[in-house]
């Protein structure tokens, strides 16, 4: 299912107070008296799809202008997926798009109920609508769009080589970026490698062991306080067992006191089991005191001041502290850094080999891209020639018999994502003038007709579902106007076409006819946009033909126009 615009509501825009446009598939024409607000319909559609917000367009006395559109889209299609990715909602295949412009110039946009940047509407519109208004930025005037449209016109012949080129181009970019990093940062990488080598040499020379720094700290503490440790152990030993070398015992030792307590209790332990348990515990205490005293004696004998060893420990600790300060929190972390540094150094030292491999691959890819780009250019030039002839033929029928459209294909300075071709549509309005870019070679009215001719030729190749034309028939009449109507109807076979016109010959080809009615005060009220039935169309065409709605001659001519248009469409 192709997306289309189903309904548009406009409030406070230009002369329009409030209007509702119910749009059908196919060809819809909008007519009305001068000043009724026809062009504001196109302006509203332009705003709805990201057009420039002009606060001067806000209706005098209104705080803001609001345009809200209801679009019918495929719930499983690309547009619906894009909206859901942005947090919006597509409900029952309907998408609500809204845009407001305040009198102060502030602009806000909503998509599927979610506020979005206005640029999001512009991006989405690329796949939904092409607005061709006298003052609008034309979609096909953008160089990238012109190339993409020509590629679609070229058809299947271009698909395979273009896909191969895009794959080669992507890899070429990756290789170029890697080479640029390796070569432009050669000095930095060389400096990094030197620093890593220096650090690894420091670690290798010191040869630290996991946990070595903690063990050395303990040893340094012990050696630095050897005298105090030995004195403390000897004092504790004397307190527990006494000093056998002393002739006098000024204070009884702990072992003797515990022994006295045990002897006193043992004498009467048989008389009370509770006291017997305490006697056993006193015996255990005596044994424990004896064991501790023995260990204290051994410790005191093992403690020995060793200035040479202390100096060696302090020197080793200074070496490890230097490493820890630079490379990690402890020796284990230093060793971990050394492992990572060795791997990184191996990677840096292999850069020369990588540069050689990447350079060879880049040369191969450049040759491949050159071949594929030449093939793309050949196909595009052939398609451009066919396209130019087809558009020129269309312009002849659209009252521009001397105009000629050509597609200039230039060569870019370097490879691009789709080749080396720079595509530009050019037009010469008469044989004596050189082809100029479309926006310079055609006036406003001519440009609309050129765009119509292009869209007719591109129909099916450039799959935009909705086209909007404003005053596409400016400056023409008679047979040329009939041809414009015929071509709009042809375009409407594959897309929704909305046209603002003042020519009855064009309006007669429409599938749906809307008229913008002008109120007495010059504004448009809610009922100002009316969908006409056949009799209403005859009256409106009669007004456009003769200025008189009820003129019998005008009505007869209007009926003749409708019949001729219906026969032409069939």
From TrEMBL:
GO annotation (BP), single: DNA recombination
InterPro entries: DNA_recomb/repair_RecN (IPR004604), P-loop_NTPase (IPR027417), RecF/RecN/SMC_N (IPR003395)
Positions of the RecF/RecN/SMC N-terminal domain: 6-521
Pfam families recorded: SMC_N
GO cellular component, as recorded: bacterial nucleoid
Residues making up the signal peptide according to the UniProt record: none
Stored Gene3D superfamilies: P-loop containing nucleotide triphosphate hydrolases
Keyword Magnesium: no
Keyword DNA damage: yes
Keywords: ATP-binding, DNA damage, DNA repair, Nucleotide-binding
UniProt GO MF annotations: ATP binding
Task performed by this protein: May be involved in recombinational repair of damaged DNA.
UniProt family annotation: Belongs to the RecN family.
Protein name per the record: DNA repair protein RecN
Species of origin: Planomonospora sphaerica
């Amino acid at each position: 299912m192709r997306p289309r615009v189903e309904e548009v509501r406009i409030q406070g825009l230009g002369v329009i107070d409030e209007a509702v446009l119910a749009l059908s598939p196919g060809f819809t024409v909008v007519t009305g008296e001068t000043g009724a607000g026809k062009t504001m319909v196109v302006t509203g559609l332009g705003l709805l799809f990201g057009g420039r917000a002009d606060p001067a367009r806000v209706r005098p006395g209104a705080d803001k202008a609001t345009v809200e559109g209801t679009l019918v889209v495929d719930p499983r299609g690309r547009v619906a997926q894009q909206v859901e990715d942005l947090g919006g909602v597509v409900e029952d295949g309907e998408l609500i798009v809204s845009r407001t412009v305040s009198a102060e110039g502030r602009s806000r946009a909503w998509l599927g109920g979610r506020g979005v940047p206005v640029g999001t509407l512009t991006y989405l519109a690329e796949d939904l609508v092409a607005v061709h208004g006298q003052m609008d930025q034309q979609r096909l005037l953008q160089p990238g769009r012109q190339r993409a449209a020509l590629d679609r016109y070229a058809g299947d012949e271009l698909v395979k080589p273009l896909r191969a080129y895009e794959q080669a181009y992507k890899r070429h970019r990756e290789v170029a970026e890697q080479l640029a990093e390796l070569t432009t940062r050669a000095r930095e990488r060389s400096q990094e490698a030197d620093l890593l080598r220096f650090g690894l040499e420091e670690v290798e020379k010191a040869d630290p062991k996991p946990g070595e720094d903690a063990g050395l700290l303990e040893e340094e503490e012990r050696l630095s306080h050897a005298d105090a440790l030995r004195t403390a152990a000897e004092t504790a030993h004397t307190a527990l067992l006494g000093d056998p070398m002393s002739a006098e015992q000024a204070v009884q030792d702990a072992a003797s006191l515990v022994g006295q307590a045990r002897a006193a209790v043992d004498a009467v332990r048989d008389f009370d089991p509770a006291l017997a348990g305490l006697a056993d515990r006193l015996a255990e205490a005596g044994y424990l005191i004896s064991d501790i005293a023995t260990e204290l004696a051994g410790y005191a004998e093992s403690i020995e001041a060793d200035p040479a060893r202390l100096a060696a420990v302090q020197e080793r600790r200074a070496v490890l502290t230097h490493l820890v300060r630079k490379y990690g929190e402890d020796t284990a972390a230093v060793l971990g850094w050394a492992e990572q540094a060795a791997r990184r150094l191996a990677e840096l030292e292999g850069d020369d080999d990588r540069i050689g491999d990447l350079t060879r691959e880049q040369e191969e890819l450049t040759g491949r891209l050159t071949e594929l780009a030449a093939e793309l250019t050949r196909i595009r030039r052939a398609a451009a020639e066919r396209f130019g002839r087809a558009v020129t033929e269309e312009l002849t029928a659209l009252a521009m018999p001397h105009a000629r459209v050509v597609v200039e294909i230039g060569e870019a300075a370097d490879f691009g994502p789709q080749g080396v071709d720079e595509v530009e549509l050019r037009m010469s309005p008469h044989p004596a003038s050189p082809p100029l870019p479309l926006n310079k070679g055609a006036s406003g009215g001519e440009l609309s007709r050129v765009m119509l001719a292009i869209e007719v030729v591109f129909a099916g190749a450039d799959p935009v579902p909705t086209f909007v034309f404003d005053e596409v028939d400016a400056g023409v009449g008679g047979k040329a106007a009939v041809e414009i109507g015929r071509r709009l109807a042809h375009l409407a076979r594959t897309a929704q076409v909305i046209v603002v016109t003042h020519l009855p010959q064009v309006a007669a080809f429409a599938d749906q006819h809307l008229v913008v009615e002008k109120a007495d005060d010059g504004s448009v009220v809610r009922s100002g946009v009316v969908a006409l039935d056949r009799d209403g169309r005859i009256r409106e065409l009669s007004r456009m033909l003769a200025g008189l709605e009820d003129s019998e001659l005008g009505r007869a001519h209007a009926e003749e126009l409708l019949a001729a248009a219906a026969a032409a469409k069939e």
